[in-house]
Amino acid sequence: MENALVLRAKEVSIPAYLYSRNIIPAEHSRSAINDYAYFSPFSNERTPSFFVNSHKNVFTDYSSGEKGDAIRLVLLLEKCSFIEAVERLLSIDNVLPDSLVEKPTNETNEADRGKHIITDVTELRHYALTQYVESRGIPIHLARRWVKQIHYSLNDRNYFGVGFESDKGSWAVRSNKFQCNIGGTGIRTIPRPGNKVYLFEGFFDFLSALVHYGVIQPSHTTIVLNSTTNLNDQLIKQWVVDGKVVFTFLDNDDTGKKAVIKLRNAGCTVTDCSGLYAEYNDFNDLIKARI
């Protein structure tokens, strides 16, 4: 077979080929590497693990470990010969329907430059993010109860991360490469009856406590600060007035220790629980050490 035909076959869009087989994306993944996410055609799954980089026209299937170009995909799916795979690709309409094409957006307005703009909020699905969460010792079924997958843009580039929403609708976003707060920073309150308050610095520490105690939700009012700067005088005063007993699960550093002192000096009844992970910087480091 002529090399020119083989090259043409390799250039046939993988999403277009999949569409010809009635396989459509589960979502646009909006990452810098892959822009289409599918349920794997090689397995029966509920979370997309088959990704296509349409710029390089290659696929990666994490459920089977397979990856390659368009010809390789046809060989795997149709179990045919190399020549038949090339002919199959050359026979399809190499055009995606409008519904599967991401519409280009205008360049970021000057007023929005430097701002994180959320473009989508979904259930935690992306393989890179589920791997990241599991690497921190948090089971995915538990994480999905409390966090979301956040897609956002910054200066005309798309990113995604694990997001934890605050009371005011802002998001603390984390991944293995970065962390940011979108919409500012704020506390997350999980109200429960009683006079006890469990206080955490970050949401991975909160999730770590759930893992440590073997529960899926707290039994007492829980507050995740997302930053110790959110431990303000008004919040503390209300706890004192209400007679709350505050159990702190803050970091074993100067910032965490100063926060405990601040609470006690304001008249709060405080139980410092950082001794549970005294050999580590925070609760999550303890959980990670158990993996």
CATH topology of the largest domain, by name, is Dna Topoisomerase Vi A Subunit, Chain: A, domain 2
User: Over the alpha carbons, how many angstroms does the gyration radius reach?
Assistant: 24 Å
Physical arrangement of strands within the biggest beta sheet: 5-6-7-8-9
Low-confidence segments: 103-113
Number of domain units: 3
Characterize the biggest β-sheet. Answer: 5 strands, antiparallel
Shape: elongated
The name of the CATH architecture of the largest domain is 3-Layer(aba) Sandwich
The count of helical stretches stands at 10
Domain Zinc finger CHC2-type: 41-90
Protein name: Toprim-like
InterPro entries: DNA_primase_Znf_CHC2, DnaG_primase, TOPRIM_DnaG/twinkle, Znf_CHC2
Keywords: Metal-binding, Zinc, Zinc-finger
